[in-house]
């Protein structure tokens, strides 16, 4: 067993049943990498997976965590990467540990000017935001994009990506501090989604035109009010349901505005060509400085339960990342 190798284990449903254990880091098989994890990022889907509410249900006991960045410790046969390479990437689960197995096809090389904490923030939320704004639709310069949960992981990524493409971004976030954070990252205006009839504020901000694109990782009432904010020919991008409520979208509102509701989804098994395009755009924008992850950094593997609790209670801004080991 590698000295100090540890992982969080979910043996029973619920955040309170997580336990930390020592383990022997696994050896990679063909097409796999064993990554010494420097930083791991959190997602709402981690909470759902721990509670048996996610579409992917690993057999228990399992180690949650889907985004990691670190250094390749060992590489299996037929891989592009070699020991010593700096990589970030998505894993199916197993990321909240000092070592994790990553498929070589899911590994993204990390430039030296990107920290491990920043790198861990890229594989899920930035990929999702790029798929939404550059593949599910083609966001154009001069369009207005409304981003919900704009101070969260996907939200801030979407704000930066849309602004980099010349769009005017309206940020929806639940506190003054979160709205200010979104504005600092490229939004030109912001709204409080807790304010009744906030779609009217969007019309004021757009001088009566309304918004062309909505990025919606929230669902529930936010989706329904977003339909009122859409301009003719607008696109509602359905990213997720962080509110816990899957909305029933009234089709008549889409019909009357010639609007579209578009599901945003991707996976490595079926979308290799699309993800190659997205990864190239992400790399270009990183190199130019057009995007830079905003990190809510937590120190040490032991900080995971509190970090997950804070994420679930909306007490975070940006992307929550656990710094596991300095490298």
TrEMBL record:
Residues 14-322 form the Enoyl reductase (ER) domain. GO terms for molecular function: oxidoreductase activity. It comes from the Bacteria. Transmembrane segments: none annotated. Gene3D superfamilies: Medium-chain alcohol dehydrogenases, catalytic domain, NAD(P)-binding Rossmann-like Domain. This is Alcohol dehydrogenase. It comes from Nitratireductor pacificus pht-3B.
């Amino acid at each position: 067993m590698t000295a100090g190798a540890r992982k969080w284990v979910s043996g029973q449903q619920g955040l309170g049943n997580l336990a930390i254990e020592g383990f022997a880091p696994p050896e990679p098989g063909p097409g796999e990498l064993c990554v010494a994890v420097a930083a791991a990022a959190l997602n709402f889907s981690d909470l759902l997976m721990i509670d048996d509410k996610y579409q992917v249900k690993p057999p228990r006991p399992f180690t949650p965590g889907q985004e990691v960045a670190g250094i390749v410790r060992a590489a299996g046969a037929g891989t592009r990467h070699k020991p010593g390479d700096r990589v970030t990437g998505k894993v199916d689960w197993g990321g909240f540990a000092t070592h994790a197995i990553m498929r070589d096809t899911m590994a993204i090389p990390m430039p030296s000017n990107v920290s491990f904490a920043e790198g861990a923030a890229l594989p899920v939320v930035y990929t999702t935001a790029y798929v939404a704004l550059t593949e599910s639709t083609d966001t154009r310069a001069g369009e207005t994009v409304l981003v919900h949960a704009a101070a969260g992981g996907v939200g801030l990524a979407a704000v930066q990506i849309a602004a980099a493409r010349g769009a005017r971004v309206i940020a929806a976030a639940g506190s003054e501090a979160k709205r200010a954070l979104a504005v600092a990252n490229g939004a030109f205006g912001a709204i409080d989604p807790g304010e009744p009839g906030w779609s009217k504020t969007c019309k004021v901000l757009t001088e009566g035109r309304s918004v062309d694109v909505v990025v919606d990782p929230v669902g529930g009432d936010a989706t329904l009010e977003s339909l009122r904010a859409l301009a003719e020919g607008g696109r509602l991008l359905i990213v997720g349901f962080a509110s816990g409520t899957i909305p029933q979208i009234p089709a008549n509102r889409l019909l009357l505005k010639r609007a579209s509701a578009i599901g945003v989804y991707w996976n490595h098994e079926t979308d290799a060509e699309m993800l190659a395009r997205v990864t190239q755009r992400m790399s270009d924008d990183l190199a130019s400085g057009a995007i830079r992850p905003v990190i809510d950094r937590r120190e040490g593997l032991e900080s995971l339960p509190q970090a997950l609790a804070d994420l679930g209670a909306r007490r975070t801004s940006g992307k929550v990342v656990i710094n596991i080991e300095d490298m």
